[in-house]
Amino acid sequence: MTQTQTQTDTTPVLEIRNLTQRFGGLTAVNDFNVRLMPGELIGLIGPNGAGKTTVFNLVSGFYQPTEGEILACGVPTAGLRPHKVTALGVARTFQNIRLWNDMNVLDNIRVAQHYWLGYGFFHSVVRTKRYKTREEEIAKEAAELLDVFDLKRYADELPKNLPYGTQRKLEIARALSTHPKLLLLDEPAAGLNSADAKELIRLIRWIHDNFDVTIWMIEHHMDVMMELATQIKVIDFGETIAEGNPDQIRNNQAVITAYLGDDNI
Amino acid sequence: MKKYSLNILLVIFAIGLLFAAHFRIIDSYIQIVAMTIGINIMMSTSLNLVNGNMGEFTCGHAAFMCIGAYISSILSVLCFGSKFGDPLLPAASVLIVFPIIVLIGGAVAAVSSLLVSVPSFKTRDDYLAIISIAVNYMIISAIENMDFIGGSRGFQGMKDTVWAMIDIFDGPWMLFWVINFTIFTVWVIRRFISSTYGKGVNAICQDEVAAEIMSVNTNKIKIINFMVAAGLAGCAGGLYAHIIGYVNPQSFNILKSTEALVMVYLGGMGSLSGAVISAIIFTGLLEVLRSQAIVDGLLSPVTMMFPDWEPSAGVIKWVMIPLLLVIVMQFRPEGIMGNRELSDVFPWLKKFYRFK
């Protein structure tokens, strides 16, 4: 049954083969492999400095990998600039929130549609019909997105004036505004208290159910991770040390060693 | 009504100014000042696009003005002057050809902005500032070494074009063109920057990494933004050349660039209305301080202490204006308007006009 399902499913949303990234003498990521099928919700954990964010930076096109290959929706991303990778359907959020703080919330959502605007400088200056219809569509879409995220009342506020949890939510909304097939969440629960984290669990699950998007997330809050992810990968010093479902990871000796250290010190 | 109130006001103002100039109600000195204000508005709003909206620090804006000035001067002399042989075009066509000449000057300046925008893909801040100064020097030196357009002696003959216009109708033509181009500049910038497309520029300013991840093609937007800014500065240069009737590479040196910078920082970074207001204030101040009597009056407490010192207005104004900048930066570092527009500062103004 599962066999036929994987076969009928379309190409993997993301496929990483033998990815290696070296910064000078430091190997940040070594021989990393992953295959994300549509609709999955997968976790990536590891101690600080393990190379988790480097993997995300490689996927989103900030670094060109030293070795290996990344395929986003079947298309190799080698040599593509980040906005092109986003156009393929890979959106991400950042560990430290990176909203455009001097643009209001609505504009934050709207500008994330930049690649799909379909008009250029000339249309924006002459205000052609195409400009007007596209702006209307984008404004409508952005308003809808704000509505489902319950952010509509903040539409005219500047993001920097919003509470921290709301900023996190807005950043996820902005990422979804690019119509992603794959959403990379880099520590979405960082800096949230336990009540907010519970809310975030609900939010991510809700996004996963409603937006037809594959989610891959890095998270240090183990309760968030264990609750959400169906499959977890653990890396340490760039090496994959374990992978499996949450229960397997919880009891994996290599993971415990990586996080807590050896018995015999 | 609200939709067109500003346009109507502008048209009335422009027609009033032109009539006053035509019937000699305002003398040619006031006209020159008005034209300088227009050109400075073009310079400061276009530089504001790069330094304010995009947050890149460039200080070689006069280079693009220089290119625009030279290209349109050469074209103008070729078409209507007798310096390079017989005029190519009949004098009657001047009214159509002149704005095209100015726009071509702007277009060439826009292309030359690639000298700054391509390096800006990888560098920013101080390094880009250095690159832009280098470009400013490069262009000036290149022109100084081109003997067929006068080299460092400068280039003239553009007045033929202006006279051709006056032959058709005796009126304040240059004032007319400056008003039109100033309004055109502000209009282009306003529309560009308020569209979602142009907001990509602000996104680059606020967080380039996030902009790139959120599907903004940063390199393309940078090129376009630099091109718009340089192109409009080039138009300003073309007009300037035709007003003065003489261009010299040294009149577009780093001091001219600094003038544009001062106007942008005085007005507030990223504020279009701030750039317009500060261009008016700045040009006004320059003219006021040109008067020896006013400078003597302002400095009388100092000159009483040092009776031997006779300050000259031409020098003192370059003490007073930077001092003003120091004071503004000290007490209001965000500039006169901050990054807000006029309608944000005075919300009641929104009732009367809509500006797009």
Structural class of chain A: alpha/beta
Instruction: Please name the two chains that share the biggest interface, counting residues whose Cβ lies under 8 Å from a Cβ on the partner chain.
Output: A-B, 39 and 28 residues
Helix content of chain A: 25-40%
The number of domains of chain A is 2
Number of helices of chain B: 16
Number of helices of chain A: 11
Task: Write a concise keyword list for the protein shown above.
heterodimer; A: 265 residues; alpha/beta; Rossmann fold; 11 helices; globular; B: 356 residues; mainly alpha; ABC transporter involved in vitamin B12 uptake, BtuC; two-stranded antiparallel ribbon; 2 strands; 71% helix
What does this structure look like?
The complex is a heterodimer of chains A (265) and B (356). By secondary structure, chain A is α/β, with parallel strands linked by helices. Chain A folds into two domains: 2-100 and 174-260, P-loop containing nucleotide triphosphate hydrolases (Rossmann fold), CATH 3.40.50; 103-157, no CATH class. Helices cover 40% and strands 22% of the residues of chain A. Chain A has eleven helices and ten strands. In chain A, the strands form two sheets. In chain A, strands 6-7-8-3-9-10 form a six-stranded mixed β-sheet, sandwiched between helices. Chain A starts with a helix and ends in a 5-residue tail after the last helix. The relative contact order of chain A is 0.17. Helices cover 71% and strands 1% of the residues of chain B. Chain B has a single domain (5-351), classed as ABC transporter involved in vitamin B12 uptake, BtuC (Orthogonal Bundle), CATH 1.10.3470. The two termini of chain B are 14 Å apart. Chain B is globular, with a radius of gyration of 21 Å. The model of chain B has no long low-confidence stretch (mean pLDDT 88). The chains are: A alpha/beta (265), B mainly alpha (356). The A-B interface holds A 60, 62, 81-83, 86-87, 91-92, 94, 98-103, 107, 110-117, 119-121, 123-125, 127, 131, 135, 138, 174-175, 177-178 and B 188, 191-192, 195-200, 202-203, 206-207, 209-219, 224, 228, 339, 356.
